[in-house]
Amino acid sequence: MAIREIFQEGEECLSKRCREVTVFDEKLSKLIDDLFDTLHKADGAGLAAPQIGVVRRVAVVDVDGVTMELVNPQIIKAEGEQIGEEGCLSVDFSKNCRVLRPQTVTVRAYDRTGKLFERTVSDLPARCVCHELDHLEGILFFTRKYQGK
Ligand code: ZN
Known about the structure:
This protein is α+β, with helices and mostly antiparallel strands. 21% of the residues lie in helices and 32% in strands.
């Protein structure tokens, strides 16, 4: 386990579409442990692999009692809307802004052992899942800035 450097906006790793994970090995397990360690140290809600320079489809979420490791995640169902302030450990606070997200999402993903699971979450955890999945597409939250009132 290790605390890793969190890359900042402007680094190439944050604007790339991440590659699928195909091998569920010790290296993947260590990556997930490092993501959790780095997230907890930074006191964040979620962290995606590209934020620590690994361009793979892996992310972790730990917010409001929802702890998830997501490998090759997909949102298979989204319902409702929520508008709320977002920020990112890879982006300066001055760019925090409101973003429109689904109120509830069902995510399908693999865990570190290669086991497929589905989980439905709402509110902040749903926002966080959407934010982390955006990272896997090379999308930063402020490009989705909510323009309404
Ligand atoms: Zn982020």
